What does this fold into?
Amino acid sequence: MMWVIVFVAIALGGLAMLACFAIWLWRKTTALFNEVEQLTGLVGELGTLVGQIGLLTEGEDFQEFHSVAKDGDGNTPVTDVSLSHGQAT
It folds into this structure.
């Protein structure tokens, strides 16, 4: 009869460990999904910011920028734009 009590105690201990592991795994999974959701929001925000920058490429936009970036005469292209002085040289 003693061996039955030992096996029941082992089975109950195993079930308790299984329940604890399931709760731990549920909490970790929830935390992971919250982090993924936050990361997705940050990636969307980063995409919006990058879209607002509007980088120039070697296409029509670049040619348009190059033709606009001339000095006061309208002939010589601006080669150095200094932000610290506020004047193009």
